Structures are given as C-alpha cells and as structure tokens.
Amino acid sequence: MEFRHVFICVNQRPPGAPMDSCGNRGSREIYQAFMEKVQMDPELMMSVVITPTGCLGPCALGPSIVVYPEGVWYGNVKLEDVDEIINSHLKEGKVVERLVVSRGKPPGMV
Ligand code: FES
What we know:
- This protein is an alpha+beta fold and about 110 residues long.
- Helices cover about 25% and strands about 20% of the residues.
- The protein has 3 helices and 5 strands.
- The longest helix is centred in the N-terminal third of the chain and has 13 residues, at about 25-40.
C-alpha cells in the first residue's frame, strides 16, 4: 500500500458567522470515522496519516478533504463516503471520482 497523507478540514465557525464551515457540516465526525478505521487496520496504520486541519479554502464545497501525494481534493464528503475513500483510494489507489472537486490545487485556484 502506497503512503498517503489525508488532511481533513475540521474548522468550525461560530453560530451566525457569515460563512458556513466544514465543522458545521459534519467534518469532525468524518475525521473521527477515518481515525477509527485506520487505527483498527494495521496495514492502514503503517501507510496512512490522517491530519485534522483548519480551513483548507473551499468552504462552500465542504466538508473538504485533500489526499497526497496525488493532491486530490474531495468536496461535499459525507460520513457514509468514508468507507469508499478508504477502500478505494487509500487501499487500492483508485480515486473516488464522484467526490473530486479539484486536482493538484484547491478548487478555484489558477
Ligand atoms: S471551513 Fe473547511 S474548507 Fe473552509
């Protein structure tokens, strides 16, 4: 299994903030689900690092996740997508195309 680093935005803006945030759309539960799956799988533990982050930029497309080394940006990720990202992308190297919002750079960057 190839090494991969997964960054998950867990930024949570306060109630009434002018912009929504990934944390308000369930990204902390998504991060927790990734951690639980990885920590229960010795092979994943040796090849995957999961890092919670602050805002990654594309808040309107959140919850936002970026996976390196491919630089694949996933958007609108839901809790039920976690298994597919793990099994397809992290284990088999097959990007989950239906969730991709950008490659190589954040969405909207030129
Ligand atoms: S709050 Fe998650 S990308 Fe901005």
